Amino acid sequence: MKKTRIKLSEDAQEIYNYLKENATTSKTEKVLFNALTNKIELLKSNIHYGQPIAKDRIPKAYIDKYEIKNLFRVELPRYWRMLYTLTNEDEVVILVFVLDIKDHLAYNKKFGYTSK
């Protein structure tokens, strides 16, 4: 069985750190941070926990920046999303690379969704 390693992009790490720092003073950030931590633990045991995003819906910005071939979405409280990709780091390790953590409006903008 392959080992799973979780790695956060700079953007995701920045949001993670912000939520962690503000979790003690803000209920919203605490809820988001706890959910994010829980989802990361779930990914360690089930790399396919998230919902796959169709290849033709993967934002070009992610393909260009990270050279990804797949993308998964994990829903978080308050309509936030965590986006991650899977790669083989070597023959015995699967890397779960968290690309982004976005609120609902930023997620819709990134994927080109419009409001009615």
Task: Describe this protein with a few key phrases.
116 residues; alpha+beta; YaeB-like fold; 5-stranded mixed beta sheet; 4 helices; globular
Can you put this structure into words, describing what you see?
The protein has 116 residues and is an alpha+beta fold. It has a single domain, classed as YaeB-like fold. Helices cover 41% and strands 28% of the residues. It contains four helices and five strands, in the order E-H-H-E-H-E-E-E-H. It has helices spanning 10-22, 27-45, 60-66, 104-111, and strands at 3-8, 51-52, 72-75, 81-90, 93-102. The protein has a five-stranded mixed sheet with strand order 1-5-4-3-2. Strand 3 and strand 4 (81-90) form a beta hairpin. Helix 1 (10-22) crosses helix 2. It is globular and about 45 Å long. The termini are far apart. The mean pLDDT is 89.
Tell me the overall shape.
globular
Tell me the domain tally: 1
Distance between the termini: 46 Å
Task: Please identify the top-level CATH class.
Answer: Alpha Beta
Order of secondary-structure elements: EHHEHEEEH
